[in-house]
Protein backbone atom coordinates (compact mmCIF):
# COMPACT_ATOMS: atom_id res chain seq x y z
CA UNK A 1 0.00 0.00 0.00
CA UNK A 2 3.02 2.29 0.26
CA UNK A 3 2.33 3.56 3.78
CA UNK A 4 5.17 3.88 6.29
CA UNK A 5 4.75 3.92 10.07
CA UNK A 6 5.69 7.29 11.55
CA UNK A 7 4.48 6.82 15.13
CA UNK A 8 3.34 4.13 17.54
CA UNK A 9 2.40 4.05 21.22
CA UNK A 10 0.69 1.83 23.78
CA UNK A 11 -1.10 3.11 26.88
CA UNK A 12 -2.24 0.28 29.15
CA UNK A 13 -3.75 -2.15 26.60
CA UNK A 14 -4.70 0.56 24.11
CA UNK A 15 -2.74 0.84 20.86
CA UNK A 16 -2.11 3.93 18.75
CA UNK A 17 -0.26 4.17 15.42
CA UNK A 18 0.17 6.66 12.59
CA UNK A 19 1.06 5.84 8.97
CA UNK A 20 1.90 8.26 6.16
CA UNK A 21 1.99 8.09 2.36
CA UNK A 22 2.57 11.08 0.10
CA UNK A 23 -0.18 13.53 1.04
CA UNK A 24 -2.12 11.12 3.30
CA UNK A 25 -2.04 10.32 7.02
CA UNK A 26 -3.87 7.37 8.57
CA UNK A 27 -4.12 7.05 12.36
CA UNK A 28 -5.30 3.81 14.00
CA UNK A 29 -6.68 3.83 17.53
CA UNK A 30 -7.63 0.58 19.28
CA UNK A 31 -9.16 0.72 22.77
CA UNK A 32 -9.02 -2.66 24.44
CA UNK A 33 -11.81 -2.36 27.01
CA UNK A 34 -14.32 -1.16 24.44
CA UNK A 35 -12.87 -3.40 21.70
CA UNK A 36 -13.20 -0.61 19.14
CA UNK A 37 -10.80 0.20 16.31
CA UNK A 38 -10.99 3.68 14.81
CA UNK A 39 -9.40 4.71 11.53
CA UNK A 40 -8.75 8.44 11.11
CA UNK A 41 -7.75 9.74 7.67
CA UNK A 42 -6.23 13.18 7.03
CA UNK A 43 -4.26 15.16 4.49
CA UNK A 44 -0.68 16.15 5.34
CA UNK A 45 -1.45 19.74 4.32
CA UNK A 46 -3.80 20.06 7.32
CA UNK A 47 -1.56 18.75 10.11
CA UNK A 48 2.03 18.00 11.04
CA UNK A 49 3.28 14.64 12.30
CA UNK A 50 6.13 16.31 14.22
CA UNK A 51 5.83 15.50 17.94
CA UNK A 52 9.26 16.58 19.24
CA UNK A 53 11.17 19.86 19.38
CA UNK A 54 14.56 18.10 19.73
CA UNK A 55 15.37 20.01 22.93
CA UNK A 56 18.98 19.68 24.10
CA UNK A 57 18.19 19.90 27.85
CA UNK A 58 20.27 23.01 28.48
CA UNK A 59 17.65 25.08 30.35
CA UNK A 60 17.92 25.91 34.03
CA UNK A 61 14.84 28.05 34.76
CA UNK A 62 12.25 27.04 37.36
CA UNK A 63 9.25 25.21 35.85
CA UNK A 64 5.91 26.69 36.92
CA UNK A 65 2.22 26.40 36.09
CA UNK A 66 0.06 29.52 36.42
CA UNK A 67 -3.70 29.92 36.64
CA UNK A 68 -4.84 33.37 35.45
CA UNK A 69 -7.98 34.80 37.03
CA UNK A 70 -11.14 35.36 34.98
CA UNK A 71 -13.01 38.04 36.97
CA UNK A 72 -12.75 41.01 34.62
CA UNK A 73 -16.21 42.45 33.99
CA UNK A 74 -17.92 45.46 35.51
CA UNK A 75 -19.27 44.50 38.93
CA UNK A 76 -21.51 47.57 39.08
CA UNK A 77 -23.94 46.19 36.51
CA UNK A 78 -27.27 44.60 37.33
CA UNK A 79 -25.81 41.15 36.74
CA UNK A 80 -23.01 41.70 39.28
CA UNK A 81 -24.64 43.23 42.32
CA UNK A 82 -23.53 42.24 45.78
CA UNK A 83 -25.67 39.54 47.30
CA UNK A 84 -27.33 41.72 49.97
CA UNK A 85 -28.45 44.19 47.26
CA UNK A 86 -29.80 41.45 45.03
CA UNK A 87 -31.54 39.58 47.82
CA UNK A 88 -29.27 36.55 47.52
CA UNK A 89 -27.61 37.13 50.88
CA UNK A 90 -30.54 35.37 52.51
CA UNK A 91 -29.88 32.33 50.32
CA UNK A 92 -26.13 32.01 50.60
CA UNK A 93 -25.41 33.96 53.80
CA UNK A 94 -22.47 35.75 52.21
CA UNK A 95 -21.56 39.18 50.86
CA UNK A 96 -19.70 38.25 47.70
CA UNK A 97 -20.11 39.10 44.05
CA UNK A 98 -21.39 36.40 41.76
CA UNK A 99 -20.26 35.71 38.21
CA UNK A 100 -22.37 35.15 35.12
CA UNK A 101 -21.68 32.54 32.48
CA UNK A 102 -19.63 34.89 30.29
CA UNK A 103 -17.22 35.40 33.19
CA UNK A 104 -15.97 31.84 33.60
CA UNK A 105 -13.12 31.62 31.11
CA UNK A 106 -9.95 29.54 31.41
CA UNK A 107 -6.26 30.31 30.92
CA UNK A 108 -3.05 28.56 32.01
CA UNK A 109 0.63 29.21 31.38
CA UNK A 110 3.38 26.65 31.92
CA UNK A 111 6.87 28.14 32.01
CA UNK A 112 9.44 25.57 30.94
CA UNK A 113 13.04 25.21 32.05
CA UNK A 114 14.47 27.13 29.08
CA UNK A 115 12.11 30.07 29.72
CA UNK A 116 9.69 29.27 26.91
CA UNK A 117 5.99 28.65 27.52
CA UNK A 118 3.07 26.31 26.96
CA UNK A 119 -0.28 28.11 26.98
CA UNK A 120 -3.55 26.23 27.50
CA UNK A 121 -6.59 28.11 26.12
CA UNK A 122 -6.40 31.73 27.41
CA UNK A 123 -9.81 33.15 28.32
CA UNK A 124 -12.48 35.40 26.79
CA UNK A 125 -12.27 37.47 23.62
CA UNK A 126 -11.59 40.78 25.35
CA UNK A 127 -8.60 43.10 25.36
CA UNK A 128 -8.50 42.77 29.16
CA UNK A 129 -8.08 39.00 29.02
CA UNK A 130 -5.48 39.30 26.25
CA UNK A 131 -3.53 41.98 28.14
CA UNK A 132 -3.53 39.98 31.36
CA UNK A 133 -2.23 36.96 29.48
CA UNK A 134 0.50 39.03 27.84
CA UNK A 135 1.45 40.80 31.10
CA UNK A 136 1.94 37.47 32.89
CA UNK A 137 4.10 36.22 30.01
CA UNK A 138 6.23 39.37 30.17
CA UNK A 139 6.63 39.04 33.95
CA UNK A 140 7.67 35.40 33.72
CA UNK A 141 9.93 36.09 30.74
CA UNK A 142 11.76 38.92 32.53
CA UNK A 143 10.74 41.44 29.87
CA UNK A 144 8.97 41.88 26.52
CA UNK A 145 11.85 40.78 24.33
CA UNK A 146 12.20 37.17 23.22
CA UNK A 147 8.93 35.64 24.41
CA UNK A 148 8.70 32.14 22.94
CA UNK A 149 5.49 30.11 23.15
CA UNK A 150 6.67 26.57 22.47
CA UNK A 151 3.08 25.32 22.20
CA UNK A 152 -0.36 26.91 22.36
CA UNK A 153 -2.88 24.17 23.16
CA UNK A 154 -6.64 24.57 22.78
CA UNK A 155 -9.05 22.25 24.60
CA UNK A 156 -12.01 23.27 22.41
CA UNK A 157 -13.29 26.27 20.46
CA UNK A 158 -15.77 27.93 22.82
CA UNK A 159 -15.05 31.65 23.05
CA UNK A 160 -14.35 31.63 26.80
CA UNK A 161 -11.38 29.36 25.96
CA UNK A 162 -10.06 30.50 22.56
CA UNK A 163 -11.40 34.06 22.59
CA UNK A 164 -8.40 35.55 24.40
CA UNK A 165 -6.13 34.04 21.75
CA UNK A 166 -7.97 35.97 19.04
CA UNK A 167 -7.72 39.22 21.01
CA UNK A 168 -4.09 38.45 21.90
CA UNK A 169 -3.25 37.99 18.22
CA UNK A 170 -4.74 41.38 17.34
CA UNK A 171 -2.57 43.20 19.89
CA UNK A 172 0.52 41.10 20.50
CA UNK A 173 1.22 38.69 17.61
CA UNK A 174 4.27 40.70 16.56
CA UNK A 175 5.71 40.59 20.09
CA UNK A 176 5.92 36.81 20.52
CA UNK A 177 7.05 33.70 18.67
CA UNK A 178 4.66 30.73 18.58
CA UNK A 179 6.29 27.46 17.55
CA UNK A 180 3.23 25.22 17.33
CA UNK A 181 -0.52 25.00 17.85
CA UNK A 182 -2.09 21.77 19.13
CA UNK A 183 -5.84 21.11 18.97
CA UNK A 184 -8.56 18.82 17.61
CA UNK A 185 -11.74 20.70 16.63
CA UNK A 186 -14.71 19.10 14.90
CA UNK A 187 -15.63 20.84 11.68
CA UNK A 188 -18.40 23.42 11.61
CA UNK A 189 -20.47 20.91 9.62
CA UNK A 190 -20.11 18.26 12.35
CA UNK A 191 -21.20 20.73 15.01
CA UNK A 192 -24.14 21.94 12.94
CA UNK A 193 -25.34 18.37 12.33
CA UNK A 194 -25.69 18.00 16.08
CA UNK A 195 -27.75 21.14 16.36
CA UNK A 196 -24.96 23.09 18.04
CA UNK A 197 -24.18 26.75 17.49
CA UNK A 198 -20.76 26.29 15.93
CA UNK A 199 -17.92 28.52 17.16
CA UNK A 200 -16.23 30.73 14.59
CA UNK A 201 -13.45 28.31 13.72
CA UNK A 202 -12.46 30.45 10.77
CA UNK A 203 -11.52 33.32 13.07
CA UNK A 204 -9.37 31.03 15.23
CA UNK A 205 -7.54 29.55 12.25
CA UNK A 206 -7.10 32.99 10.72
CA UNK A 207 -5.46 34.13 13.97
CA UNK A 208 -3.12 31.11 13.85
CA UNK A 209 -2.00 32.15 10.38
CA UNK A 210 -0.57 35.38 11.81
CA UNK A 211 2.31 33.46 13.39
CA UNK A 212 4.84 32.76 10.65
CA UNK A 213 6.43 29.34 10.80
CA UNK A 214 4.13 27.95 13.50
CA UNK A 215 3.49 24.21 13.15
CA UNK A 216 -0.18 23.16 13.12
CA UNK A 217 -0.96 19.80 14.74
CA UNK A 218 -4.40 18.21 14.79
CA UNK A 219 -3.80 15.98 17.79
CA UNK A 220 -5.04 12.44 18.39
CA UNK A 221 -5.22 10.16 21.40
CA UNK A 222 -2.01 8.31 22.12
CA UNK A 223 0.28 11.04 20.84
CA UNK A 224 3.05 12.25 23.15
CA UNK A 225 4.58 15.65 22.46
CA UNK A 226 8.10 16.33 23.73
CA UNK A 227 8.23 20.07 24.40
CA UNK A 228 11.39 21.18 26.18
CA UNK A 229 11.38 19.46 29.59
CA UNK A 230 7.66 18.62 29.38
CA UNK A 231 5.71 15.72 27.92
CA UNK A 232 2.19 16.40 26.68
CA UNK A 233 0.17 13.16 26.61
CA UNK A 234 -3.03 13.30 24.54
CA UNK A 235 -5.58 10.96 26.13
CA UNK A 236 -8.87 11.76 24.41
CA UNK A 237 -10.04 13.71 21.38
CA UNK A 238 -13.32 14.27 19.58
CA UNK A 239 -12.72 11.51 17.04
CA UNK A 240 -12.66 8.94 19.88
CA UNK A 241 -16.46 9.32 20.16
CA UNK A 242 -17.29 8.77 16.52
CA UNK A 243 -19.54 7.59 15.05
CA UNK A 244 -21.92 9.87 16.92
CA UNK A 245 -23.67 13.20 16.66
CA UNK A 246 -22.18 16.12 18.55
CA UNK A 247 -25.23 17.34 20.44
CA UNK A 248 -23.22 19.12 23.16
CA UNK A 249 -20.21 21.14 22.04
CA UNK A 250 -18.27 20.76 25.30
CA UNK A 251 -18.15 17.06 24.45
CA UNK A 252 -15.45 17.70 21.84
CA UNK A 253 -12.96 18.85 24.48
CA UNK A 254 -9.43 17.45 24.11
CA UNK A 255 -8.25 15.78 27.33
CA UNK A 256 -4.52 15.59 28.03
CA UNK A 257 -1.92 15.78 30.76
CA UNK A 258 1.40 17.57 31.00
CA UNK A 259 4.28 15.94 32.86
CA UNK A 260 7.19 18.12 34.00
CA UNK A 261 9.63 18.00 36.92
CA UNK A 262 8.06 14.77 38.15
CA UNK A 263 4.58 16.29 38.44
CA UNK A 264 1.49 15.54 36.32
CA UNK A 265 -1.12 18.18 35.47
CA UNK A 266 -4.45 16.93 34.07
CA UNK A 267 -6.38 19.28 31.77
CA UNK A 268 -10.07 18.48 31.25
CA UNK A 269 -11.25 21.72 29.62
CA UNK A 270 -15.07 21.63 29.57
CA UNK A 271 -15.37 17.84 29.28
CA UNK A 272 -18.37 16.37 31.06
CA UNK A 273 -21.20 18.63 32.03
CA UNK A 274 -24.61 17.93 33.48
CA UNK A 275 -26.36 18.14 30.13
CA UNK A 276 -28.42 15.23 28.82
CA UNK A 277 -26.26 14.71 25.76
CA UNK A 278 -26.04 11.38 24.02
CA UNK A 279 -22.26 10.98 24.20
CA UNK A 280 -20.42 11.28 27.49
CA UNK A 281 -16.70 11.63 26.93
CA UNK A 282 -15.81 11.28 30.62
CA UNK A 283 -17.56 7.91 30.82
CA UNK A 284 -15.51 6.88 27.78
CA UNK A 285 -12.28 8.03 29.44
CA UNK A 286 -13.04 6.06 32.61
CA UNK A 287 -13.77 2.98 30.52
CA UNK A 288 -10.60 3.29 28.45
CA UNK A 289 -8.06 4.17 31.17
CA UNK A 290 -7.40 3.22 34.78
CA UNK A 291 -5.85 5.18 37.64
CA UNK A 292 -2.46 4.03 36.35
CA UNK A 293 -2.83 6.53 33.51
CA UNK A 294 -5.17 9.09 35.04
CA UNK A 295 -3.59 9.70 38.46
CA UNK A 296 -2.33 13.31 38.56
CA UNK A 297 -0.80 15.67 41.09
CA UNK A 298 -2.69 18.70 39.79
CA UNK A 299 -6.17 18.79 38.23
CA UNK A 300 -7.88 21.47 36.19
CA UNK A 301 -11.49 21.01 37.32
CA UNK A 302 -13.73 20.17 34.40
CA UNK A 303 -16.25 22.68 33.07
CA UNK A 304 -15.24 25.49 35.46
CA UNK A 305 -15.95 23.30 38.49
CA UNK A 306 -19.69 23.35 37.75
CA UNK A 307 -20.30 19.61 37.34
CA UNK A 308 -22.05 17.19 39.67
CA UNK A 309 -22.47 14.31 37.19
CA UNK A 310 -21.56 10.82 38.42
CA UNK A 311 -19.20 10.37 35.46
CA UNK A 312 -17.25 13.44 36.57
CA UNK A 313 -17.05 12.19 40.14
CA UNK A 314 -15.84 8.78 38.96
CA UNK A 315 -13.07 10.39 36.92
CA UNK A 316 -12.00 12.61 39.83
CA UNK A 317 -11.65 9.52 42.01
CA UNK A 318 -9.22 7.98 39.53
CA UNK A 319 -7.25 11.21 39.10
CA UNK A 320 -7.03 11.65 42.90
CA UNK A 321 -5.26 15.05 42.73
CA UNK A 322 -3.40 16.81 45.52
CA UNK A 323 -4.18 20.24 44.04
CA UNK A 324 -7.18 21.46 42.05
CA UNK A 325 -7.36 24.53 39.81
CA UNK A 326 -10.95 25.77 39.40
CA UNK A 327 -11.21 28.09 36.35
CA UNK A 328 -14.23 30.09 37.46
CA UNK A 329 -14.60 33.78 38.34
CA UNK A 330 -16.48 33.27 41.60
CA UNK A 331 -17.61 30.64 44.07
CA UNK A 332 -21.14 31.88 43.35
CA UNK A 333 -22.13 31.72 39.71
CA UNK A 334 -25.21 32.37 37.61
CA UNK A 335 -25.67 30.06 34.62
CA UNK A 336 -28.76 30.38 32.42
CA UNK A 337 -30.75 31.95 35.24
CA UNK A 338 -29.70 29.37 37.85
CA UNK A 339 -27.53 30.31 40.83
CA UNK A 340 -24.74 27.81 41.54
CA UNK A 341 -22.55 27.49 44.62
CA UNK A 342 -19.27 25.81 43.62
CA UNK A 343 -18.59 24.29 47.02
CA UNK A 344 -21.62 22.05 46.40
CA UNK A 345 -20.13 20.71 43.17
CA UNK A 346 -17.93 17.68 42.50
CA UNK A 347 -14.55 19.44 42.24
CA UNK A 348 -14.85 21.13 45.61
CA UNK A 349 -15.69 17.80 47.23
CA UNK A 350 -12.45 16.07 46.20
CA UNK A 351 -11.12 14.83 49.50
CA UNK A 352 -7.68 15.93 50.67
CA UNK A 353 -6.97 18.25 47.73
CA UNK A 354 -6.10 21.94 48.00
CA UNK A 355 -8.40 24.02 45.79
CA UNK A 356 -7.51 27.26 44.01
CA UNK A 357 -10.32 29.31 42.50
CA UNK A 358 -9.31 31.48 39.54
CA UNK A 359 -11.38 34.46 40.68
CA UNK A 360 -9.37 37.59 39.85
CA UNK A 361 -6.13 36.15 41.22
CA UNK A 362 -2.92 34.78 39.73
CA UNK A 363 -1.90 31.43 41.22
CA UNK A 364 1.61 30.14 40.49
CA UNK A 365 2.70 26.61 41.35
CA UNK A 366 6.43 25.91 41.27
CA UNK A 367 7.00 22.29 40.26
CA UNK A 368 9.65 19.91 41.54
CA UNK A 369 10.19 17.52 44.43
CA UNK A 370 8.63 20.08 46.76
CA UNK A 371 5.70 21.87 45.13
CA UNK A 372 5.11 25.44 46.33
CA UNK A 373 2.20 27.82 45.68
CA UNK A 374 2.06 31.62 45.48
CA UNK A 375 -1.20 33.57 45.07
CA UNK A 376 -1.52 37.24 44.07
CA UNK A 377 -4.83 39.10 44.37
CA UNK A 378 -4.88 40.15 40.72
CA UNK A 379 -2.68 40.50 37.64
CA UNK A 380 -1.45 43.97 38.58
CA UNK A 381 -0.41 42.77 42.05
CA UNK A 382 1.40 39.86 40.44
CA UNK A 383 3.34 41.83 37.83
CA UNK A 384 4.44 44.44 40.39
CA UNK A 385 5.52 41.86 42.97
CA UNK A 386 9.24 41.99 43.81
CA UNK A 387 9.87 44.72 41.26
Average pLDDT level? 88
* CATH level-two architecture of the largest domain: 4-Layer Sandwich
Which segments are poorly predicted (pLDDT under 50) over 5 or more consecutive residues? 78-95
Helix share bin: 10-25%
Name the CATH superfamily classification of the largest domain: Ribonuclease Z/Hydroxyacylglutathione hydrolase-like
Main sheet specs: 9 strands, mixed
First-last Cα distance: 62 Å
User: What is the CATH topology descriptor of the largest domain?
Assistant: Metallo-beta-lactamase, Chain A
- CATH class assignment of the largest domain: Alpha Beta
Rough shape?
globular
What report would you give on this structure?
With 387 residues, the chain is an alpha/beta fold. It folds into two domains: 1-46; 60-382, Ribonuclease Z/Hydroxyacylglutathione hydrolase-like (Metallo-beta-lactamase, Chain A), CATH 3.60.15. It contains ten helices and 23 strands. It has helices at 83-86, 89-92, 127-141, 159-172, 188-193, 201-208, 281-288, 291-294, 310-319, 379-383, and strands at 4-11, 14-21, 24-31, 36-43, 64-68, 99-100, 107-111, 117-121, 147-153, 176-178, 180-183, 215-218, 224-227, 230-236, 255-260, 263-267, 298-300, 323-326, 332-335, 338-341, 354-357, 362-366, 372-376. Strands 5, 7, 8, 9, 10, 11, 12, 22 and 23 form a nine-stranded mixed β-sheet that branches. Helix 3 (127-141) crosses helix 4. Residues 78-95 have low confidence and may be disordered.
